[in-house]
Amino acid sequence: EPDVTIVSGLKDMAVFEGDDVTFRCQVSHENARDVEWKLQDVALQNNEMNEISVEEGKVHTLTLRKVTEQDIGTVAFRVGCHTSTA
């Protein structure tokens, strides 16, 4: 299986409390396994507050819904041994 790398990393975002914010990270291969999103070192799951999806097979997205002050911090995307943060 080819080593999946990050082609386009996360970008820092500033939003207002109550808004949604979306982070995108593009990887080198489709159907990447061993992918993880974190906020402040806490692993995120796909649920009503966090929407995790993959667009066009390579663009992994994380949408944080109705953010609050407690959501301030570092967002990290990891695939294999490669990580991008914002």
TrEMBL record:
Residues 2-86 form the Ig-like domain. It is found in: Cytoplasm. The keyword Transmembrane does not apply. Keywords: Cytoplasm, Disulfide bond, Phosphoprotein. Pfam families: I-set (PF07679). The keyword DNA-binding does not apply. It comes from the Eukaryota. InterPro entries: Ig-like_dom, Ig-like_dom_sf, Ig-like_fold, Ig_I-set, Obscurin/Obscurin-like_Reg. This is OBSCN protein.
